[in-house]
Amino acid sequence: MITIQNVGAVHYQGVEGEATYNLGSGFNAYGNYSLNSYTSAIPILNAPQNTAALGMLYEHNKTNASLIAKEIGSRWGGQDVNGNYVHFGSYTTVNLATGYNFGSLGWAKDAKLEFQLDDLFNRTDSIAYAGSTQGNNALYWTLPGRMFSLNLSAGF
Fold this sequence. Notes:
Elements: E1 11-24, E2 27-39, E3 50-60, E4 63-72, E5 75-79, E6 85-88, E7 91-105, E8 108-118, E9 126-132, E10 138-142, E11 147-155
Antiparallel strand pairs: 1-2, 2-3, 3-4, 4-7, 5-6, 7-8, 8-11, 9-10
């Protein structure tokens, strides 16, 4: 989501760490965390206080898979009709992906089949303020819910 906002002077800072640990037999544990803060006269929209990810990765021979939980921390999401800033809590989504590399299939080189399932638990949390109707009813952006994709790719 893109937010255009003139806030004047802002001092933004943060720290981020990431690690992957090899568990053996093709498995890796993965983690990431960031802590962010800013100093500004008004809230910075859609700037989370923290983000985090935790997951398991697998790769062996021609097969790969991942299961990763991603958290987006609390943040400000816009102004309501009264000019009050709307605050949103954190949310977490879990994504699953798997793939298989067929290699060369005659005319197709490096053929791959990949499946991805985003938002495994079908979260539809409100994540940002989208404005209001003429009747001053609040509108919100939400997570889209569970989605999946199937991708077949190959070089020639």
